[in-house]
Amino acid sequence: MDVRRLLKKSFVFYRHNNYLIHIYDFFYFDKYLRVLVLRLTSLIFLTVSTVISYGQLLPNFGGQRAGLSALSFLKNDLNPSSFAMASASVANEGSLFSSESNPASLVQIKNSGIALSNLTIGAGINQSFLGTAIKLDGGGVLGFNVNSLNSGSMEVRTEFEPNGTGQLFYANNTAVGINYAQQLSKRFSIGVGLKYVYEGIATYTNHTVTGDIGFLYSTDYKNLTFAVVVKNFGGNSQMQGSDLETDFNRTTVSLEKYTTPTIFKMGFSFVPYETDNKKLLVAAELNHPSDNAENVRLGGELGLRDLLFIRLGYKLSVKGQNYPTAGVGFKTRIGVHPLYINYGVNPTNKMGVQHLFGLNIPFNNDTRN
Q: Is the pTM of this model over 0.70?
């Protein structure tokens, strides 16, 4: 019989560039799981300390990488609470929107439920999210989601009819995904996701498949949590179509293959202050996208009686983002189920103010404090 060991505290000290990391309280892990979690945590701390010491872990090509990937709508944050915190959410507590931030944190939801949101990007462009998560026996969570961007109608224009031919065309991007998260121990969880992605512009279409994988490790010190995520990794994709005219005043146009917008995320969150009625959450995240410069996200959330949530955030090294993000959330109920209403706002330098509104409904009999 596999008998788990009793409570056992161990202390691991790792020194890198004069940073002393104290990792403790690994308990109820079997031998192999303890080794796995210890190595993963050491890797996270090593990477963080390297970033602190040398500025950036990976080469910063900045604008030279912009435009190298297609399907950029996959990078938009559709989690309202995360959106208000400048998307510093990779290590935040799990919610029904977690498939957008870190699939591993889906294991932290208390009940199954549904979530939906709508992002107003500007120029008539909107992006919407609909997702559900189902708790399974054994600590697993299964999620399904749809992410869709629509441009609205646009007029067809030519050299001879620059004001429009009377015909309309549309641009639509849609991703349909499935996620699975599993709690491997009391403190360590893993989550994976798979998405089918469709892109359509007028009569041109594109299809591909992308994947996500995330890890989450929690401690018992002020809810300190570390996370690592890789999102949107997949192969190249290419638009297909034959409507483009090339017989008048045009050269032959070739449609090339482009990569998906893969992004590596690493971050932490913790609760430095908490009372019966107030809770302050602080989060930080390092992003390394495949098609732009590395950047850092900082965010915070103040919760009042678990009914009102005030959020702020700031993006560092993100071009066109010189203003802080903000948002607010309310908790009420619909029937016997709690209802969370969240709003986030992101002022940009050249694309105006973006708004994200969302609802999530866990299915349970919630009691108001």
A: yes
